[in-house]
Amino acid sequence: MRTGMLALALGLLCLGFLPALPSVGWLVLLAVAGGVGLFTRLWPLGCFLLGLCWACWSAQQALDDRLAAGLDGRTLWLEGQVVGLPTRTAQGVRFELDAPRSRRAELPQRLQLSWFDGPPLRAGEQWRLAVTLQRPAGLLNPHGPDREAQLLARRVGATGTVKAGQLLAPIAGGWRDTLRQRLLAVEANGRQAALVALVLGDGAGLTREDWQTLQATGTVHLLVISGQHIGLVAGLLYGLVAWLARWGLWPARLPWLPCACGLAMTAALAYGWLAGAGVPVQRACLMLAVVLFWRLRYRHLGATLPLLLALDAVLLVEPLAALLPGFWLSFAAVATLVYCFSARLGGWRPWQAWTRAQWVIAIGLLPVLLATGLPVSLSAPLANLVAVPWVSLAVLPLALLGTLLLPLGGVGELLLWLAGGLLDVLFRLLAEVAQLRPAWVSPALPMWAWLLVCLGALLVLLPRGLPLRGLGGVMLLALWVPREPVPFGKVEVWQLDVGQGLAVLLRTRHHNLLYDAGPARGKSDLGERVVLPTLRKLGVSSLDLMLISHAHADHAGGAGAIMRGLPVKRVIGGEVLDDLQLQPCASGERWVWDGVRFSLWRWADGRSSNDRSCVLLVEAQGERLLLAGDMEAGAERAWLSASEEPRIDWLQAPHHGSRSSSSEAFIRATAPRGVLISRGRNNSFGHPHAQVVERYRRHGVVMYDTAEQGALRLVLGGQGAVDGVRGQRRFWRVRAQ
After folding, report:
1. Which of 208, 401, 508, 724 is the most exposed place for a label (fewest CB within 10 A)?
2. In what order do the strands lie in the sheet with 615-620?
3. Is the pLDDT of residue 173 over 70?
4. What confidence tens digit (pLDDT) does each residue in 254-313 have?
5. What pLDDT is attached to residue 111?
6. What's a BP term from Gene Ontology annotated to this protein (predicted)?
């Protein structure tokens, strides 16, 4: 039985590694082969093939429900119902619309929308909206999160921005949203948002500082409802009935064991329903159901069977769940505990089991964190040692009981005030720990090094006394495998995908240079969210130079976050920045790093900020790259006049390909082989302009676009081509328009 269940799970999990989905003909053939295999000695293979077919068919249904390419960027009037819990942001509100209808087009079954400066929305409301729709996509950088996969896993067929709207019908069945509003209105020592996260599984109200604290201390799972919360609620009720029965306080006419199991399961399902029934909740409820069922029959149940049952059930219900990092973290944490605590000789005292559980989970989750590109918390074992019992035994019971008793007024509010006070104390303590030991973003590892880390973690978690355990510790040293150096005389160029902005990393053998730092507008700082984590994953621990072309927010906005996150030896800018000390860009300044030549130029007579951009020319073994910032036609003419040799091989598109740049004379004189365009999808500026695109095509210049290909990589000095991250084939990636 376990063999078949494992084979089925492997077939379902294969979906996430497919570069493309098989055709209908292949699916039918594989399904027939799987059905035949079930009745032969190859029945495990049959389970595997049937699981793979089901996953592929389900994924194809989700892909077919995406927005049609012809509707990408169009504005339509549509009607639909708000579902889930709308999230209030600094710019407006973000929400999901279910079963939208439009007279002009067929739409996906679920949309994720943003309404800047929009009115408060409530779940269950019916709205008529004017929406600019986009195919589901997102920024795509090396070793970074894949938003396109995450949207597909949630079966969101399109995203969009609301331009106008009209309420058609008030709330219908939005009880979770009503409860959230009630919780946010109580006095809870300023921790109302944390209570909402704990009770309803909605962490959208937590501040960025709160999330950073939780991530740095490895305690995110405490505020995102997990199996731990479900198991605790069920265990409390089961234990209460068992305690009453033991002391003769339970009614004799009612058999205590069926009642205990039934109440425990009911409480778990109710809490899971309240929390939105995410993957960790599904896994916990399924495992709990199996354990309670076997408990009713007085049979001992091994730990692996419930885990396999839960894994198969979650994937059969939603095969695309495997595209979410939370799926892997949830099951990996439970699998680690099963591996370390089941079938071991001898007994551990409760305090020993508790302390060991923290460090074994930290080691067991290490390979998953590395594979998903998430930060590794160095303080997690110590922080969870205190935080888990604090939340589980004190905060959670008070929060749930207070929520249940809210209709009684003062009693419920008092309990929530106490729960909020305990949460506030915990957050203050965790913030201190996070400052002392922040999270570590590991550089991306080659596959062989990651496999060594996996094997090392398995060996380290073996029972004490086995000789191979020490070898596991040695294998974990693969975490610090040095990145393959850039060859002498060449420079690795990464134009990052930062939407409507610019950030270019240049790496020689021993030096790192960042040209522009990505955009920042309000609380949305892509320097902090995208550029800084990507630099760390690429192995950049410091910058020898950060060059800010000019003062516009789409180029300079992320500079502050970079300065706070990495040591920067020198900063040069084309213009003065209010919050950054920098040296002015000096035309004619030249230097050589590891055989690569760099030179600066700036038009001193430029009238606009764009024309005063600091321009960087890079030459490696005769191959030349020009980083032009936002200079426009006037600056292009001045650069041509000042340049002794204007011909280049690669050009960063001036001003994102605007109509005021990339002039005919400039393209003819520079004659680049390729142009690197950094822009946002369907941006409001219309970049790159159709006339500019036509100019490049007419001159035979190959265009590489971050909106279509994700982050772009070029090794200057190798006479090679440009590679886009989106070129790594995955079945869910579609070409953006």
Report:
1. 208
2. 590-593, 596-601, 615-620, 623-627, 650-652, 674-677, 702-705
3. no
4. 888 899 999 999 988 888 888 777 667 777 788 788 778 777 765 666 668 888 888 898
5. 96
6. establishment of competence for transformation
pLDDT of res. 346: 55
What CATH number does the domain containing 103 carry?
2.40.50.140
Q: What is the pTM of this model?
A: 0.89
Residue 737's pLDDT is 39
Is 532 in the same domain as 420? no
Beta bridge partners of residue 166, listed in sequence order: 128
597 three-state secondary structure? strand
Q: What domain range includes position 43?
A: 2-64
Question: Whose CA is closest to 375, among 533, 586, 181, 210?
Answer: 533
Q: Which two tokens stand for residue 251?
A: 């009614």
Q: Please state the φ and ψ torsions of residue 596, each to the nearest 5 degrees.
A: -110, 130
Q: With helix as H, strand as E and coil as C, how does 163-221 read?
A: EEEEEEECCCCCHHHHHHHHHHHCCCCCCHHHHHHHHHCCCCCCCHHHHHHHHHCCCHH
Cβ count within 10 A of residue 297 = 7
What lies within 8 Å, CB to CB, of 237 at 6+ separation is 260, 263, 264, 267
| Rounded distance between C-alpha atoms, residue 525 and residue 510, angstroms | 28
Q: Is 415 a residue whose pLDDT tops 90?
A: yes
Judge if 649 and 598 occupy the same domain.
yes
End-to-end CA distance of the chain: 48
Q: What is the predicted pLDDT for the residue at 733?
A: 85
